[in-house]
Specification:
Number of helices: 9
Shape: elongated
Subcellular location: Cell inner membrane
Structural class: mainly alpha
Helix content: over 70%
Largest sheet: none
GO molecular function: heme transmembrane transporter activity
Radius of gyration: 18 Å
Protein name: Heme exporter protein B
Number of strands: 0
InterPro entries: Cyt_c_biogenesis_CcmB, Cyt_c_CcmB_bac
Number of domains: 1
Keywords: Cell inner membrane, Cell membrane, Cytochrome c-type biogenesis, Membrane, Transmembrane, Transmembrane helix, Transport
């Protein structure tokens, strides 16, 4: 099972590298969204610092959503998922490999760019580390929860529109907790409980989401 997992992960990473345009699209989208806010509301440092946590997290959430639709679609259309089911390996193993590849390609660049975005929006230095930690814990949750929605909509012709309606309600608690922790750090208040909730959400998502997404894919195959 470990060899199958690593083979699937390597395959998805290689395919993504060959499609460099699709690979860069979430990052470009993130940068464009964050850059538009100072132009729209003005460059006031105090105002930008106050809205920075929400702006960065909303941009990260939207960048994740627009990259989710292709998570299983190619494998579904070419029959790879059916072949994997017939191979006898757990479908949850396929889900975990593809979610990890998705996070490495879409989530990790967001985490890496977040300090620069924080400086751009004048976020206090005391909050930058909390921003990075919240994204490191929260973006994998977005990928895992999104995989469930993709599994349910992958067989639909316009599943991307329905996908957004399915996953946004699941993302709201993550958004509220993450931004609350960053704002608490900016105000000099304890932020540990917020990061603890994100860690608990990540553990729960890693434990349950692959099986839920696998069940959703089986429903789409039937």
């Amino acid at each position: 099972m470990t060899r199958a997992f690593l083979a699937l992960l390597r395959r998805d990473l290689l395919l993504a590298i060959r499609r460099r345009g699709e690979l860069l699209f979430p990052v470009i989208f993130l940068l464009v969204v964050v850059s538009l806010f100072p132009l729209g509301i003005g460059p006031g440092p105090a105002l930008l610092a106050r809205i920075a946590p929400g702006v960065i997290w909303i941009a990260a959430l939207l960048a994740t959503v627009i990259s989710l639709d292709s998570l299983f679609r190619t494998d579904f259309e070419d029959g790879s998922i059916e072949q994997f089911v017939l191979s006898g390996h757990p479908v949850s193993l396929l889900v975990m490999a593809k979610v990890l590849a998705h996070w490495l390609l879409a989530g990790l660049p967001i985490v890496a760019l977040s300090p620069l975005l924080a400086i751009w929006l004048n976020l206090p230095a005391s909050s930058v580390s909390v921003l990075v930690a919240s994204l490191a814990l929260g973006t994998p949750i977005l990928s895992l929860l999104g995989a469930i929605g993709v599994g349910l909509t992958v067989s639909l012709r316009r599943g991307g529109q329905l996908l957004s309606l399915l996953v946004f309600p699941l993302y709201v608690p993550v958004l509220i907790i993450a931004t609350g922790g960053i704002m608490a750090a900016a105000d000099g208040l304890p932020y540990g409980p917020f990061l603890g909730l994100l860690l608990a959400g990540l553990i729960t998502s890693v434990t349950l989401a692959p099986f839920a997404a696998a069940a959703a894919l089986k429903i789409s195959l039937s």
